[in-house]
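Figure S7 source data.
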Amino acid sequence: MPTSIITVRRVSELRALVAGWRRADETIGLVPTMGALHDGHLALIRQAQADCRRCIATLFVNPTQFGANEDLAAYPRDEAADRTKLAALGVDALFAPTVDEMYAPDASTTVIVAGLTEHLCGPFRPGHFAGVATVVAKLLLQSLPDAAYFGEKDFQQLQVIRRLARDLDIPVRIVGVPTVRDADGLALSSRNAYLSADERKAASTLPRTLSSIAERLARSPSDVAAQIDWGRAQLAAAGFGKIDYVEVCDVETLQPVNEVSGPARVFGAAWLGRTRLIDNAPVQR
Ligand code: PAJ
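Tokens for the predicted pantoyl adenylate complex:
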């Protein structure tokens, strides 16, 4: 089992590494992360390795996607543990740049994906998707992989990234990977580490509620408003505090629907104490 991994901190080194693999005609998969790796991240890596000869993971806690009152300073960081996990999987390289390497002090270009960011997390996290879109555009252009892998857990993020790659003609295949969950259904997330024991118990109400709504809408597609009310009540009863949203949206436009007539997902974001959880479930029709 490999115990070490090539780590590059500079864009120039990353480009040199990729150029060598390209000369050998090898395909490259990219897995962007903010670290504190769990089995959800590892599923993306396994998919990249199944599809591509080479796999690069990136580790960058991107300051521009955190709001002023969000958890940038407290975000879990353990690069040594992450490197051990990546080495054990046989990942070919870790790109872990500094903030200075990623952003010039007078950086003034931002990627904004309109429309898809109008609902769901967009209004609750102003500037978040611009930060994500900008850093992901940079990571894709720095490495120019064949494919890049993102989790369906952050479905709005996945769609934003698909759209920016298409709109900016970045020649990469964006691959969505199904959500990896704990035994009780809670989606794995680096932020689950913030939950107290009681909060952790209550947390599984979020996925349970969203998938119940999805099942009911598969049977009664016009029942959206009533199901949203029911879902909000379930979350409140389980001890969730502020409920940012429970919404049913078209998967392509991410606009809310009153009735399910095409591919749709149920989305939820709510707070347990100081921790914000998000999840989503497809309506199977
Ligand atoms: P991060 O939260 O570290 O997540 C990295 C990738 O792992 C994302 O594509 C996310 O959707 C995926 N992921 C997280 N939990 C998952 C789970 N339980 N199952 C499957 N996939 C999961 O998302 C980000 O970082 C950042 O916004 C980033 C894209 C790296 C840009 O900074």
